[in-house]
Write a structure and sequence with these properties.
2 domains; two-stranded antiparallel ribbon; 2 strands; mainly alpha; about 120 residues; about 5% strand; Helicase, Ruva Protein, domain 3; 30s ribosomal protein s13, domain 2; 6 helices
Length: about 120
């Protein structure tokens, strides 16, 4: 298994897909990295030589990914919470941040449904 930025990338998949296992790299950035490194995206990870892997590593160093990106995102969220912006308040309360409805859905953010006492009429 090849290791890039502290992440094991799978051997059996194409290098284009394997790079997406690194936090902060999607399909488009993966294609761009491979184009800049002049490596065919359809090749499997286990077919690459050490020189080619080093080219990919050097190309990836130009971008903010993995731990640095996670840290940056968390700091942005904390800043919003400190200045009490609308999004920061939503983060504090554990509610959806980007304008989704909460009356019926939002169970991912709100957690398991809380039962309310029965009201007899």
């Amino acid at each position: 298994m090849a290791r890039i930025k502290g992440v094991d990338i799978p051997d059996k998949k194409t290098i284009e897909i394997s790079l997406t296992y690194i936090y902060g790299i999607g399909r488009n950035l993966s294609k761009k990295i491979l184009a800049d490194a002049k490596i065919d995206p359809s090749r499997r990870t286990n077919e690459l030589s050490n020189d080619e892997l080093n080219l990919i590593r050097d190309e990836i160093e130009k971008y903010t990914i993995e731990g640095d990106l996670r840290r940056e995102v968390n700091m942005n969220i904390k800043t919003k919470m400190e200045i009490n912006s609308y999004q920061g308040i939503r983060h504090k309360k554990g509610l959806p941040v980007r304008g989704q409805r909460t009356s019926r859905n939002a169970r991912t953010r709100k957690g398991k449904g809380k039962t309310v006492a029965n009201k007899k009429k």
